[in-house]
Amino acid sequence: MVKYKVKITDIIEEAQGTKTFILDKPEEFTWIEGAHTHIGMLGFDEGEIPNKAWVRHMSIMTLPEDNKIGFTTRVLAPFSEFKDKLSGLQVGDEVILFKIGSRMYLRREDKPVVLVSMGVGIATMRPLIKSFMKDQTGIRELISLNVDSSREFIYKAELDELHNPKLKNYFVGTRNEFYEILNEISENNDAYYYVVGSDNFIKDIIKYLKNKNIPENSILLDKKEELLADYFS
User: Fold this and answer.
1) pLDDT tens digit string along 22-68?
2) Closest among 208, 209, 200 to 231, alpha carbons compared
3) Domains along the chain with CATH numbers
4) pLDDT value at position 233?
């Protein structure tokens, strides 16, 4: 397994308690939209057994052509060991990258694509939206629906600047607003639905979509295959 030691080149405060970390991109490190990687704190692998408490799987919120690697995450107390160390990092400090995976890439099968996210879950959706803006091949329309009760919507200013007749972005602050829009969107049972958020949020959305006759194979999660049964049961 190849590991990359990379520097933090920027830290952006997106909202209260939410930060984007921008990292150097190794020349040979590449990915597709919707990919994730593992971020490790320095020293996580120095013992006989790696310290998994110092590692997290993070969605990459940039595209390779941006020539940088970015991830956005909540950094709020009480901290886990990983978040405690992450919160203390500064520009110029280093982290370890390893093991890229991708379950949330754009399906270009001449269907609509609906991105449903909660809070910082929009980080997984940003590169999908950006990739769609570069190339709409095989996607009838793309709809992004994000709910965040804080109303400090991450990336909203940036995404509101994107204009395409096949793109719709919705940011809402209440579940009532959220379900009003989702109810209308989900009348289309031919779409792919990408869902990112807390476990309870994901399970609620799956139940809702299944009640709207959306087939399970059209609901996509950023979860390992062996964990899917728990969400769809």
Assistant:
1) 999 999 999 999 999 999 999 999 988 999 999 999 999 999 999 99
2) 200
3) 3-102 (2.40.30.10), 111-232 (3.40.50.80)
4) 84
pTM for the structure as a whole: 0.94
Going across the sheet that includes 18-23, the strands are: 55-59, 35-41, 94-102, 3-15, 18-23, 69-74
* Spans of the chain below 50 pLDDT: none
- Report the pLDDT value the prediction gives residue 6, as an integer from 0 to 100: 98
User: DSSP string spanning the chain?
Assistant: --EEEEEEEEEEEEETTEEEEEE---TT----TTEEEEEEETTTTSSSS--GGGEEEEE--S-GGGTSEEEEEE--SSPPHHHHHHHT--TT-EEEEEEEEES-----SSEEEEEEEEGGGHHHHHHHHHHHHH--TTEEEEEEEEE-TT---TTHHHHHT---TTEEEEEESSHHHHHHHHHHHTT-TTSEEEEES-HHHHHHHHHHHHHTT--GGGEEESS-GGGHHHHH-
